[in-house]
Amino acid sequence: MNCAGNALGAFHCRPHLTIFKVEGYIQACRGLMISAVCLGFFGAIFGLVGMKCTKVGGSDQTKAKIACLAGLIFILSGLCSMTSCSLYANRITSEFFDPSFVAQKYELGAALFIGWAGASLCIIGGSIFCFSIAENSNSPRRGYAYNGATSVMSSRTKVHNSIPDKTPPKHFDKNAYV
Question: Per the confidence metrics, is the pTM higher than 0.70?
Fold first, then answer.
């Protein structure tokens, strides 16, 4: 109990609510949000390890598997957050439209909408992460041969020139311009 007194000597006491005395759905929402934050943190760590630009993680195939795992963890994090926001919003709206509910009624606020938007972005980002890695692992990279620039002038001179060109064709790799 928390009690406070005023100058006239009157005391006003009210019960002290702890984390264990709140209703079950609020505890469930808190647990889901905490798990969503923890999963998002581990998803970000796995995402950094699974990127192709980092030196940690091994070969490209191993990195692709780690990145796909990161995408799945992000999707799971978004689902936990979406479930938490939806559970709380369901309780709020059912209490708001219940005519026999006499306690203080709440409305949907900005925090719920931000939670839904964040959960949606987390799910979409995890899906893109999974599909982009799967797309890159199926098709190997190929080098392109450089055939030289052709212009109107160079094509005319090659046709009218009677001396054959003895220089071999130039093949450049992707690192030729660095």
Answer: no
